[in-house]
Design goal:
Layout lengths: L7 H20 L14 E5 L8 H6 L6 E5 L11 H11 L5 E7 L9 H10 L4 H16 L4 H14 L8 E7 L6 E5 L6 H4 L8
Parallel strand pairs: 1-2, 1-3, 3-4
Antiparallel strand pairs: 4-5
Helix pairs in contact: 4-5
Length: 206
């Protein structure tokens, strides 16, 4: 007899059903209480790398409800009002974040991302060359400016320090995470003045 294989969607929904049952058993029908605003007044910008799932929060001592976590490829900031900045604006002005932690990681895949190769793979999957042309300028700016994980974190800190939408009283820290040992390395201490970062060239114009 052929055994039916669950799709990924079915696996996710089945896992959720079991988890919901556990939550209701422990907390009742109302579910598990959790605050909407970050209780430690922290916003974290980090990478979407699978190795950081669950690990990042544990290695930083962050629990559910403690922080807003923003994940994008390479923890990159591409524009003065990019999606990352929009999320940080909400975190700061509506949810009360007072400190931003930019956390990069060693062995980041963005170090090897090439616009030409990425474009080829997209076209091979059916994306039209016209669509690639439409976003090629931003793709080049995004991928070509990422050369080294540590330098990218430092640049992102400088971008936020210089961003006119981020208030001066928000502290911005830069850290690197080893995804294998979980060790955090401090690159930029936002508690200290840093004239070098305040004057660093960070233009993201096309």
């Amino acid at each position: 007899m052929e055994v039916a294989v669950m799709s990924l969607l079915e696996e996710v929904l089945k896992a959720n059903e079991a988890y919901v049952a556990d939550i209701i058993k422990e907390y009742g029908e109302a579910g598990m209480p959790s605050p909407k605003t970050p209780q430690r007044h922290i916003a974290i910008l980090t990478c979407m790398d699978t190795r950081l799932v669950d690990l990042l929060e544990r290695t930083m001592g962050i629990d559910r409800g403690d922080a807003n976590v923003i994940r994008v490829a390479g923890n990159c900031i591409t524009d003065v009002f990019s999606d990352v900045i929009r999320s940080l604006v909400v975190s700061i002005y509506e949810l009360g974040a007072k400190e931003i932690f930019i956390v990069g990681h060693e062995d980041c895949g963005m170090e090897k991302t090439c616009p030409d190769e990425l474009s080829k793979r997209m076209i091979d999957r059916g994306i039209s060359p016209e669509a690639i042309t439409m976003i090629r300028c931003e793709m080049d700016r995004w991928a070509n400016n990422f050369c080294h994980s540590e330098q990218n974190v430092i640049k992102a800190v400088a971008q936020l320090r210089q961003n006119p939408l981020i208030p001066n009283d928000v502290k911005i820290h830069g850290l690197m995470l080893n995804p294998y040992t979980s060790k955090l390395i401090l690159l930029v201490d936002g508690n200290k003045p840093n004239e070098e970062l305040d004057s660093m060239a960070v233009c993201t114009c096309c």
